[in-house]
Design goal:
The complex is a heterodimer of chains A (about 475) and B (about 600).
Chain A: E1 5-6, E2 9-13, E3 16-20, E4 29-34, E5 40-49, E6 52-58, E7 70-77, E8 79-82, E9 89-91, E10 108-111, E11 128-130, H1 134-139, E12 142-143, E13 150-152, H2 158-168, E14 170-171, E15 178-187, H3 189-201, E16 208-214, H4 221-239, E17 243-249, H5 251-264, H6 278-286, E18 290-291, E19 298-306, H7 315-323, E20 326-330, H8 332-336, E21 343-350, H9 353-356, H10 366-390, H11 397-414, H12 424-435, H13 448-464
Parallel strand pairs in A: 9-16, 13-19, 13-20, 15-16, 15-17, 17-19
Antiparallel strand pairs in A: 1-7, 2-3, 3-6, 4-5, 4-7, 5-6, 8-10, 11-12, 11-14, 18-19, 20-21
Helix pairs in contact in A: 10-11, 10-12, 11-12, 12-13
Chain B: E1 2-8, E2 11-15, E3 24-28, E4 33-41, E5 44-49, E6 61-68, E7 70-73, E8 81-82, H1 89-96, E9 115-119, E10 126-127, E11 132-137, E12 143-147, E13 154-159, E14 162-164, E15 169-175, E16 178-183, E17 186-189, E18 198-200, H2 211-216, E19 224-228, H3 235-245, E20 250-256, H4 260-269, E21 286-291, H5 297-316, E22 320-326, H6 328-341, H7 355-363, E23 367-370, E24 378-387, H8 397-405, E25 408-409, H9 414-418, E26 431-432, H10 435-445, H11 450-474, H12 481-498, H13 512-534, H14 539-543, H15 548-552, H16 559-584
Parallel strand pairs in B: 8-21, 19-24, 19-25, 20-21, 20-22, 22-24
Antiparallel strand pairs in B: 1-2, 1-6, 2-5, 3-4, 3-6, 4-5, 7-17, 9-11, 9-14, 10-13, 11-12, 13-15, 15-16, 18-23, 23-24, 25-26
Classes of the chains: A alpha/beta (about 475), B alpha+beta (about 600).
Chain lengths: ~475, ~600
């Protein structure tokens, strides 16, 4: 079967080819397609029956015909050559170099659809990553091996935030090799240039691998790009013992591509036309983050997605949120108020926060402090919408304090400069300072001894000033 | 031998499979992937494969094992972690490393380990199905009863004592059809319900140590609970808290299509956590089934059945089991995915038309049961099923079908979660249909005033919801003082009673006694302040009282010290309020 060229295409429908006469194409097998004009494409078998195979083409089908196109079945599933030479390089969605450098020679050929990590082999992520961003470090702490997406919207500064995290992220007191893998699906060349320049100007490029699929590139490549990026990440993490931060943007484009194939296959659609297996499909990407017992490397993921219509219940953010370990939600209202990064902490969450904070990791008062800020800020926000109806005068004195807290919190805690790298101590102390205007009897989430140890001091200083 | 004619994801169609029967387990291709027959039509056999089918092609072979998907039951189940089709993940790790490769098999129970078997029956006894003939100390906590497999009865011919592996013969039974050997292990097809003699009405609560659950929305042993909630609302933390602190004898935790790191959390924390009653590690009473979201979807579908079959086996020994299924929505999605591949006519939102039947069949395997055995024995299974509704909207089919069959509903609320009110169980939307059945138990075993205190607290919260609407229109300051007092009491109930930190050493578990005293302290404080307001004291004054700290620090007081704290506090509250109440009425 190998090296046999099939010319028996019966139908081309969107990205799908129906090849007849083939008896035993393997499921997920890679095929090479040669068009009449000599151009080549890669494809993958989506369904195989006796006598027919349905092939999904990566790349445009422009100019493809049913009579002159040849299809060769390679006999193997999708693989990618990976090596540490890939650091500092730029590739397309099929792992072909697109910078001027040489091809990747040698390297290890590995399957791009990685096997699932045995849950028994996983190590609980617990190393605090200091990102220097207060809303993340203080309120939604990121730990090594976590998958923490950014839920954004069109026009929000998610790229800036992702770049800032990539630039500032560090694990305290440790000097270990660290690399960024950047997978871009369907982003504009401007966005791509932003990241490339960002990585170049900070020198981070030498410890980065970039996989770029631009808006103009074939959408089918978006399906395999994140898998190639993660296979590279796994190689670097578990063979080369590096700590990898994987940034995937924009997952919304990935899901659109998935929907495109599904509708071309005439599958029964789930919500909003997305395929019913999208949850499972997304999990095979997100679940590749983690740490493994006895291995020194790790994979941390920050996928970015733009919520269509800023709707968090849309299937893409919805299914993502059910898989990932929390989410960082950006808000248009905050951006309008001139706040950067416009992180709305109320719907944001880090599920692994508790493992990464506390005495010995960040500081003993961290948990209670974060909870106290959360409840005070939520209260302040409620009062803000209430005062819009009844007027601020109708609020009690205590309520006005909360209103002030919410405003101060956004202006001083959430807001920070693009290049401002706040240490965790600064972030925590700032939290106590802001809380000091609230009555002590309302401090129900923090331990009494912590109020005495960390809170009082600020209060006295305030009283003096 | 069967030959594959079609492959589409996890669904494979083969021709000429020998003796193909519905739900037989088959081995697919030379890799030996495990699959199950789900459809038969004119020579074609449709198989759902429990592993990734990449590289499988038409022409590959299919072998029928002739047996339905079964669990292996016997000593050694506890402390194990299995995937959806009961492959031990620790052994798989030894065999294939940190990533799960395909086609691996491993016996679910350790065949080499020797267990000390103590007979409890005597040779010559009449024994019938389900009868206990001996015991094995499986862990420090659990005494594993060896039972006569279902379908066998007769006279005990032979029964030995001593050290045996699960493959050794420990005795035999003379039946009408000849002699049958007895082993410590048995098999059970997972899709079959293990029968019981009859089911009894629920009478005892499953005590969880979580205040909002035990006091407000209790679940009975043998009951069913639905826990729907959008992501981030704390479903998993609720399930973890229940597996840690619920007073069941055994916990079966099914991680069905959820996160790998969550299973790791259980694996790392449970061996260190001690059971509040016995002081032994919690792992000693736990069985874990982990089929994470990125593991094969067909095995996810099976994981729920594997879990419940293990639960039923321990129930038959006379234990109370709590089964946690996190999340049943992922299981339903697996059904939908397979159904889609079979090109079945879809029902609502693409789910198959038989979704409702499958959901109710599953929950029906719970119950407070009289075991099928000639020996009088009771056991129960409580099912707590998490539901992950798309977009947090519970009008979707999985939530609706689940609510139709479950009797307790803990509505998790995203807006509570975002202000870090945990557990984020909404007290207005949730319900428990066991409340009336269980009230006598609480009144008798905890305190006589239990149901009254609850009713009072609930009506305050109800009143608060109404008042909040008014506050939205006119502002807080426009309310009469007496209603401000109600709002204040409601806030105390919410913040000092309903909120409970799963991560605080003391607050993570709250005994029933402490729960009762906490709530009655708040309600009596509420009554005092209402009186005081009636006599002309302003709420602003009361809000400044130092005695309130007595209430806000309740959570920090240890169980054993609480009675003293309660009595002192009640006295102090009385001392503070007495003059305020008397103040208005100068007559006495």
């Amino acid at each position: 079967m190998i090296n046999v060229n099939y010319r028996s295409i019966s139908q081309i429908n969107g990205p799908l080819l129906f090849v007849e006469g083939i008896e035993n194409a393997a499921y997920n097998e890679i095929v090479e397609i040669t068009m009449e004009n000599g151009e080549t494409r890669t494809g993958q078998v989506l369904e195989s029956r006796k006598g027919i195979a349905i092939v999904q083409v990566f790349g445009p089908t422009l100019g493809m015909n049913t009579t002159g196109t040849r299809v060769k079945f390679t006999g193997s599933t999708a693989r990618v050559s990976v090596s540490s030479q890939m650091l500092g390089r730029v590739f397309n969605g099929l792992a072909q170099p697109t910078d001027d450098g040489p091809g990747i020679i040698g390297g290890e050929k590995i399957e791009i659809v990685g096997d699932a990590i045995n849950p028994y082999s996983r190590e609980e992520p617990s190393e605090f990553i200091e990102t220097g961003v207060s809303t993340i470090d203080g309120m939604n702490t990121l730990v090594r091996g976590q998958k923490l997406p950014i839920f954004s919207g069109s026009g929000l500064p998610h790229n800036q935030l992702a770049a800032q995290i990539a630039r500032q992220a560090k694990v305290k007191g440790k000097d270990e090799s660290f690399a960024v893998i950047f997978g871009a699906m369907g982003i504009t060349s401007e966005e791509a240039n932003y990241f490339i320049n960002e990585f170049r100007s900070t020198g981070a490029i030498s410890r980065s691998v970039l996989f770029l699929n631009l808006s103009s590139d074939p959408s089918m490549e978006r399906i395999i790009l994140p898998r190639i990026a993660l296979s590279t990440a796994e190689y670097l993490a578990y063979t080369e013992k590096m700590h990898i931060l994987v940034i995937l943007t924009d997952m919304t484009n990935y899901c659109e591509a998935l929907r495109e194939i599904s509708s071309a296959r005439e599958e029964v659609p789930g919500r909003r036309g997305y395929p019913g297996y999208m949850y499972t499909d997304l999990s095979t990407i997100y679940e590749r983050a983690g740490k493994i017992k006895g291995k020194s490397g790790s994979i941390t993921q920050i996928p970015i997605l733009t919520m269509p219509g800023d709707d968090i219940t849309h299937p893409i953010p919805d299914l993502t949120g059910y898989i990932t370990e929390g989410q960082i939600v950006l808000s248009r209202d905050l951006l309008r108020g001139g706040i950067y990064p416009p992180v709305n902490v109320l719907p944001s969450l880090s599920r692994l926060m508790n493992q990464g904070i506390g005495a010995g990791r960040t500081r003993e008062d961290h948990r209670g402090l974060a909870d106290q800020i959360y409840s005070a800020y939520a209260n302040g926000r409620d009062l803000r919408s209430l005062s819009a109806i009844v007027g601020e005068e109708a609020l009690s004195k205590n309520d006005k304090t909360y209103l002030k807290f919410a405003t101060d919190y956004e202006k001083r805690y959430v807001n920070q400069a693009l290049d401002e790298d706040r240490s965790i101590e600064e972030t925590l102390d700032l939290g106590w300072e802001l809380l000091s205007i609230l009555p002590e009897s309302d401090m129900k989430r923090v331990k009494r001894e912590h109020v005495a140890k960390y809170g009082k001091r600020r209060k006295e200083e305030d009283a003096v000033s | 031998m069967g030959i594959i004619v079609k492959v589409s994801g996890p669904v494979v169609v083969a021709k000429d499979v020998e003796n193909a029967k519905m739900y037989d387990v088959v081995r697919v291709s030379d890799l030996g992937l495990v699959g199950e027959i789900i459809k038969l039509s004119s020579g074609d056999t449709t198989i759902q494969v429990y592993e990734d089918t990449s590289g499988i092609r038409p022409g590959d072979k299919v072998e029928n094992t002739g047996r339905p998907l079964s669990v292996e039951l016997g000593p050694g189940l506890l402390k194990s972690i299995y995937d959806g089709i009961q492959r031990p993940l620790n052994i798989i790790r030894e065999k294939s490393g940190d990533f799960i490769r395909r086609g691996l098999t491993a016996p679910p129970l350790d065949t080499k380990k020797e267990w000390e078997f103590r007979p409890t029956a005597r040779v010559g006894d009449r024994v019938s199905q389900g009868d206990v003939v001996g015991e094995v100390q499986e862990t420090d906590l659990i005494n594993h009863k060896i039972m006569i497999p279902l379908g066998i009865s007769g006279q005990l011919e032979k029964l030995e004592s001593g050290k045996f592996t699960i493959e050794d013969v420990i005795g035999s039974v003379k039946t009408d059809k000849g002699s049958v050997k007895l082993y410590m292990r048995q098999y059970w097809p997972v899709r079959n319900i293990r029968p019981v003699k009859r089911k009894l009405p629920p009478s005892e609560p499953l005590v969880t140590g979580q205040r909002v659950i035990d006091t407000f929305f209790p679940v009975a042993k043998g009951g069913t609970v639905a826990v729907p909630g959008p992501f981030g609302s704390g479903k998993t933390v609720v399930q973890h808290q229940l597996s840690k602190w619920a007073d069941s004898d055994i916990v079966v935790y099914v991680g069905c299509g959820e996160r790998g790191n969550e299973m790791t959390e259980i694996l790392t924390t449970f061996p260190e956590l001690l059971d509040p009653r016995s002081g032994k590690p919690l792992m000693e009473r736990t069985v874990l089934i982990a089929n994470t979201s990125n593991m094969p979807v067909a095995a996810r579908e099976a994981s729920i059945y594997t879990g419940i079959s293990i639960a039923e086996y321990y129930r038959d020994m006379g234990y109370n089991i709590a089964l946690m299924a996190d999340s049943t929505s992922r299981w339903a999605e697996a059904l939908r995915e397979i159904s889609g591949r079979l090109e079945e006519m879809p029902g609502e939102e693409g789910y198959p038309a038989y979704l409702g039947r499958k959901v109710s069949e599953f929950y029906e395997r719970s119950g407070n049961c009289v075991i099928r055995s000639s020996q009088e024995r009771l056991g129960s299974i409580t099912i707590v099923g998490a539901v992950s509704p798309a977009g947090g909207d519970i009008s979707e089919p999985v939530s609706q079908n689940t609510l139709r069959v479950t009797r307790v509903f803990w509505a998790l609320d995203a807006s509570l979660a975002s202000r870090r009110h945990f557990p984020s169980i909404n007290w207005l939307n949730s319900y428990s249909l066991y409340r009336n059945d269980l009230s006598p138990w609480f009144n008798k075993n905890v305190s006589a005033g239990w149901s009254d205190t609850y009713a009072e607290a609930m009506s305050i919260l109800q009143k608060e919801a109404e008042l909040q609407e008014i506050v939205q229109l006119v502002g807080y300051d426009a309310l009469p003082e007496i209603e401000k007092a109600t709002l204040d009491t409601a806030r105390l109930i919410r913040e000092d009673f309903l909120q409970q930190s799963a991560f605080d050493e003391i607050d993570t578990y709250c005994s029933l006694g402490k729960q009762g005293m906490m709530l009655s302290m708040i309600t009596s404080f509420g009554e005092w302040q209402t009186h005081a307001v009636e006599k002309g004291t302003l709420m602003a004054q009361i809000q400044g009282l130092k005695v309130r700290e007595r209430i806000s620090r309740m959570k920090e007081i240890k169980d054993q010290d609480f009675k003293q704290y309660y009595e002192d506090s009640i006295k102090e509250i009385e001392t503070v309020f007495r003059p305020l109440v008397a103040g208005g009425v100068k007559s006495d």
